[in-house]
Amino acid sequence: MSLSPIKQEILESMFLSDKPQKAMEIAKELHREFQPVMMHLLGLTRMGYVTSPEKGLYILTIQGKGALGISEINKEKAAAILSYAPHDKAFNFYKSVGNPLNVHAHNLRDFTVKIDRVDIASLEFHLKRGDFESWFKSLGDEELAKKMELLKRRELTGEDLRKRLHAVVDPRFRTLTKFSGQVFPENQTHSHSEHTHTNNL
Question: In the chain, N or C terminus with fewer CB closer than 10 Å?
Fold first, then answer.
């Protein structure tokens, strides 16, 4: 079923948030009037793409994610996405072309720690180039890759970008952890590369 441009926009905006949202918040995020957004939200709810867990709050369903081309994950897939990437497949942070920071992320948990600490110019550089998107695809995480593509379109910069990145990646890490049945104690959230490269952040 093809979606109208505004319905597509609403789904994409909701997809970037893992929490139930009010219609007013969605309208504000999209810089659109409340009334049409509310009308389309009700339409998307009837289509099964959106559900309302409690009065006035809306969240995407599995079908809603499917409409954006995102498939479901299972325990094995979640564990594969979370697994440790060898050095040649780790994410290497650069400030600009030819200017490496000697900071590496070997898995998704490691990545969530590093994005809170690296130079903001590095986050802007990589998002604009689509590097985060490509790395998440290489890990097998279509959902995060799609979210990076949507974030890139918003042209966020500075600390707004850092906060938004964290708000997207950290809940995804926690969801995958739950799916996979793995446990990541807080004291094990820093990888070896963290200890090796902290001075370069």
Answer: N
